[in-house]
Amino acid sequence: MKARAFSYHRAHSVDDAREAHARSGDDARYIAGGQSLVPALALRLQAPRILIDINHIEELRGVRCDGEWLRIGALTRHCEMLTDPLIAEFAPLLRAAAPFVAHPAIRNRGTLGGSVALADPASEFPAMMLALDAEIEIAGTSGRRRVRADDFFIDLFETAVGPGEIVTAILVPRFRCNQRICFDELARRRGDYALVGCGMLATCKDGLVETIRIAFFSVGNVPTRARSAEAVVSGARIDADRIVAAQAALDRDLAPPESDEVPPAMRLHLARVLLGRLLARMSEAA
Amino acid sequence: MNALTSLDRPNSYIGRSVPRPNAKRLLAGRGRYVTDIRLPRMLHAAFLRSPYAHARIISIDVDAARALAGVHLVATGADIARICAPWTGTLDHFKGMTSEPQLPLPLDRVVWAGQAVVAVVAESRALAEDALELISIGYEELPAVVDLDAARQPGTPRVNPSGTSNICFRTQLDSGGVDEAFASAAHVVEEEFSFGRHTPVTLEPRAIVADYDAESGSLTVHHATQTPYQFQDLYARHYGIPEARVRVIAPDIGGSFGMKLHVYHEDMAVVGLSILLARPVKYVADRIESFVSDIHARDHHVRARMAVDVEGKILAMDIHDATAIGAFSTYPRTSVVEGNQVVRLIGAPYDFKSYRAVLEVVFQNKVQTSQYRAVGHPIACAVTERMVDLAASQVGIDPFTMRARNVIADNAYPTASPTGYKFEALSHEICLQRLRGIMDYDALRTEQAELRQRGIHRGIGIATFVEITNPSPAFYGVGGARISSQDGATLSLTPSGEVRCAISVTEQGQGTEAIIGQIVADQLGVAQDHVKVITGDTEVTPHGGATWACRGAGIGGETALQAARRLKANILEIAGLILQEQPSALDIIDGQVVGVATGQLRLPVAEIARIAYFRSDTLPPGTQAQLTVSHHFAPQGYPFAFTNGIQGCYLEVDVHTGFIKLLKHYVVEDCGRIINPMLVDEQLRGGVVQGLGAALFEECRYGETGQLLNGSLADYLVPMAMEMPDIIIDHVETPTADTILGAKGCGEAGTAAASACVLNAVNDALAPLAASINAIPITPARVLKALGRY
Ligand SMILES: Cc1cc2nc3c(=O)[nH]c(=O)nc-3n(C[C@H](O)[C@H](O)[C@H](O)COP(=O)(O)OP(=O)(O)OC[C@H]3O[C@@H](n4cnc5c(N)ncnc54)[C@H](O)[C@@H]3O)c2cc1C
After folding, report:
1. Ligand 1: does its nearest atom lie under 6 Å from the Cβ of A124?
2. Neighbours of B118 (CB within 10 A)
3. Which residue of A has its CA nearest to B709?
4. Ligand 1: does its nearest atom lie under 6 Å from the Cβ of A119?
5. Boundary of a domain, candidates B293, B319, B348
6. Among A79, A99, B574, B591, which one has the highest count of C-beta atoms within 10 angstroms of its own C-beta?
7. Each residue of A85-143: pLDDT tens digit?
8. Considering the domain A180-285, what is its CATH architecture?
9. Does B433 lie in the same domain as B561?
């Protein structure tokens, strides 16, 4: 299929992009990496009157330290998660997740901002925002604001980003030496969206887990924190009993929807298996 | 010591891993596929498709679409029916089979979700799709027949209201003695299998450019097809154009696997649209359309029983195969060949007498199924080999021992299967031994046992198979299909002493042109660089069956071989006149005429060509040099050249997630004379990968209303490199004596047994856990269900 005809505007600043959006009467789409948008256009699932290209907005680029935060520009490509030294040092969970995101050709273009703004519940990075306790910087009519990841994902493909607003950067608390990460997913084939996936960030002390944030993806309409499982593990030493208890607690955290291929009970089972494996790894690292 | 072999003779290309001459060109992006063709004044077609699996068409409103600027034609079923004769996908030798007549676009009823209903032709594909959005069709939904078992129930809604049931075809085989054998057997094993629907997924989708010239009344079709002559015949007859004025050109083709030799409604429509407009019209199926309109395959439910004696000797098999084929039987090869081959190939590697099978082919409201790589073989092989494993475990013997006791002995040929297939010479015993060796079977079993102690569940599976190749007219011709089982080649010596070979077999990426070039160069005694092979154009090559069912090497290759020998004789005749020698005293080596006895160089072949073409006055009076020969070859002798082989698989089942990791795959195969070992190995590997896709990933999943749920490459999983194991290959060579060349086919062997191996290996891994799997694809959901994990 071929996309319906659309106009194109290359934006050179955030304001320029937002004004173009406003002029279109909100019948516009921002295009970043295009790896989700272009297929949707080709399938005519979306047919905006105008595409606003944000790829040339300089301020959306780059990764830098900003006090206790790592600031990752919205246009940072998935492939940069694998190569950027600051990300490797201060946001290693993103680096750990990146190889599981699609394939090299897609990672070369797809952007972190696009992934988070789209908020596909099967995507790796949105869930990692939860695990990292990241904040999303949004440019809107009333200027810039920062939204905590916990408040960002509202429903299926619905986020705190309002019409015409732009995600400008992701802010991640800098990784500390007493922290540990773990990431894995169960996907039928390498690079596929996972049947279930999970990333976690633990703050440890003397072999105990002080606090832990556990985030699942591909388990429902939004990336989801496993708060009950977190509670089971927090303040404790991870041992076999804890792992079983955390797995049991997942019942209260996840309610996977009906799907023709993976029944809810199976997805929950897989989430438990994955959680068990990741916590076992975490216990070795703690 | 370096002994000289026949391969050390100059130009000894048969048996050599010569690279494909077209590989670099294609790799460099210089391929010319149908999609690349842009003709002057060419227009583009797009189709509006039915959202319903079964519905009556109440109204079609195309006014707004017609009015859109850039739209040249909006055509409904009725518009094209005026110029196109309908077709029916039945063949006479399938007694009693029925199927409804078909037209390019339906008149009043749609029978599957995704069926093309209205065509738009516009200046561009995008514009044509804009116009589709302006068309409104009123439907009255009818009850859809979706599930295979439901389709067979009495009282189920009918796919074709004019029929009396949903049965397309039913047949029965009975060699006798089955009930007695079961009654007296020491062990009886039973199983019910289900095989999912899948679809070929070629890299290049279906593509066609039809170009009707109203002034000369001639039609040229650039068509991504395996079988140009078959389509020349069909376009001529269904549109009433004399055959000689229809030209079908198949340029570079990006894979086919059987998918591109069936009549598709859109393709037939595009020819009609070009006739209506007297302009070239192009249509390229996109991936979403491919999923709902390319043929699907498989979709079988099989009940099987096997009787064995105390030693594990097979006594009898009793089979019921039900298969659903969509709303129509495909034209012109039908949709019952797969089922027919399933019931005839089951048990084929084994020496037993009593066999009974029932085949039931039913209609349903889905896209048609038809011949796809290894037609029927994977089903027959999986059923047979799983039954053999079940029997072996009942008897308490190793799967290798079980097979060694039952395969037809290598010295028992010629012989026949209980279903009547005649075998010239197969090599099961030696293949079995070889497989055991390359797998290092005993070591694998030791490793498996050790790992089980640690909760790691590995499985080993093997599967013996036979493959049908080199089909004679017994395949289609006897049923009334105008599908040739012979091939033709025209070989010319060019004035500069090179060779041009125009041959009716075709190239879809498997290397047909390479092996034809090897054979011609080898037989003539010239460098392969000096042989140009031309395929895929009805205006250029003689008539022939082309490439399908594993016939390119065996039949096309023999055609080229015989043609080359005739051309060589003609060249040597002229050489004899020039050199005042008996032609029998001369030979050609490396483009030079030499003395047979002395090996002495006498004359370049190029010099003979120069004299014959430009200085015929210097030849003896009355000499007419024949430096072009046309030659045809039709297989005679055995109706099919059967090949055989055996595969092995080593894998690991994660019993907590249901995921399966393929660790290694092994193939021992006997395709007779090997022309190009590298190409044979890659055919086998590619075929294995398709079989592994079927085993673990590929399945067209439908919802209750007959909607395809996973019709995109994001949801329909094809096997990818990361998940594929290394594939170790070994060969046994038992040439057929029916031809000089001795080649049989190898294109389907990989696919034939790969899924059976995986099924056996997974069951081997699960056996200690008292779980078993009887359906493919073997998804995590099925494994976890079998293990009762959730
Ligand atoms: C074959 C394939 C496989 C894939 N597999 C995976 C996978 O396994 N895991 C995974 O996570 N993803 C996968 N993806 C998706 C890919 O990661 C996308 O790149 C990503 O989801 C979106 O990023 P993008 O920059 O391409 O966004 P685009 O496609 O350009 O945009 C997506 C949406 O977000 C909006 N948008 C983009 N940037 C911004 C912004 N800064 N502010 C506000 N709105 C914005 C756009 O308007 C659009 O609506 C796959 C894609 C393909 C094609």
Report:
1. yes
2. 26
3. A260
4. no
5. B293
6. B574
7. 999 999 999 999 999 999 999 999 999 999 999 999 999 999 999 999 999 999 998 99
8. 2-Layer Sandwich (3.30)
9. no
- In-domain check, residue B246: yes
CATH number at residue B517: 3.30.365.10
Q: Are residues B457 and B498 in the same domain?
A: no
C-alpha distances in angstroms, A12 versus A8, A17, A19, A59?
13, 7, 11, 9
Q: Which domain holds residue B23?
A: 6-29+486-633
Q: For B76-95, how does the pLDDT look when each residue is reduced to its tens digit (9 = 90+)?
A: 999 999 999 999 999 999 99
Ligand 1 atom closest to A38 (CA): 29
Q: Is A236 on the interface with B (CB under 8 A)?
A: no
User: Where do the structural domains in chain A lie, given as residue ranges?
Assistant: 7-53, 61-173, 180-285
- For residue A120, report the distance from its CA to the centre of ligand 1, in Å: 8
Under CATH, to which class is A7-53 assigned? alpha beta
The correct answer on CATH 3.30.465.10 for the domain covering A61-173 is yes
> Given B599, B633, B667, which residue is the final one in a domain?
B633
Contacts of B288 in chain A (CB under 8 A): 1, 43
Report yes or no on B331 lying in a domain: no
Q: What is the pLDDT of residue B215?
A: 97
Closest residue in A to B698 (Cα) is: A188
Number of structural domains in chain B: 3
Q: Are strands B187-198 and B297-308 parallel, antiparallel or unpaired?
A: antiparallel
Interface of B with A in 367-396 (CB under 8 A): none
Q: What is the pLDDT of residues B507-564, one digit of tens each?
A: 999 999 999 999 999 999 999 999 999 999 999 999 999 999 899 999 999 999 999 9
B243/B232 Cα distance (integer angstroms): 7
Judged against a pLDDT cut of 50, whether residue B1 lies above it is answered with no
Quick one: B403 exposed, middle or buried, by C-beta within 10 A (0-12, 13-18, 19+)?
buried
Does any domain span residue B329? Answer: no
Average pLDDT over residues B103-121: 98
Is any atom of ligand 1 closer than 6 Å to the C-beta of A161?
yes
Q: What is the pLDDT of residues B121-177, one digit of tens each?
A: 999 999 999 999 999 999 999 999 999 999 999 889 999 988 889 999 999 999 999
- Residues B609, B668 share a domain: no
H/E run at residue B274:
helix B265-277
Residues 417 through 446 of chain B touching chain A, CB cutoff 8 Å: none
In this prediction, residue A286 carries a pLDDT of 72
With beta carbons under 8 A apart, name residues in chain B contacting A254.
Answer: none
H, E, C per residue of chain A: CCCCCCEEEECCCHHHHHHHHHHCCCCEEEECCCCCHHHHHHCCCCCCCEEEECCCCHHHCCEEEECCEEEEECCCEHHHHHHCHHHHHHCHHHHHHHHHCCCHHHHCCCEHHHHHHHCCCCCHHHHHHHHHCCEEEEEECCEEEEEEHHHHEEECCEECCCCCCEEEEEEEECCCCCEEEEEEEECCCCCCCCCEEEEEEEEEECCEEEEEEEEEECCCCCCEECHHHHHHHCCECCCHHHHHHHHHHHHHHCCCCCCCCCCHHHHHHHHHHHHHHHHHHHHHHC
Q: How far is the CA of A111 from the centre of ligand 1 (A)?
A: 7
| B213 and B100 share one domain | yes
User: Measured from the CB, is residue A111 less than 6 Å from ligand 1?
Assistant: yes
Question: Does residue B243 share a domain with residue B111?
Answer: yes
Same domain, B604 and B665: no
Residue B54 shares a structural domain with residue B68? yes
Judge whether B696 lies within some domain. Answer: yes
Residues B384 and B462 both lie in one domain: yes
Residue position matching structure tokens 């406003």: A22
B659–A263: do the CB atoms touch at under 8 Å? no
Hey, do A7-53 and A180-285 end up sharing a CATH topology, with the first three levels equal? no
In this complex, do A4 and B130 lie within 8 Å of one another by their Cβ atoms?
A: yes
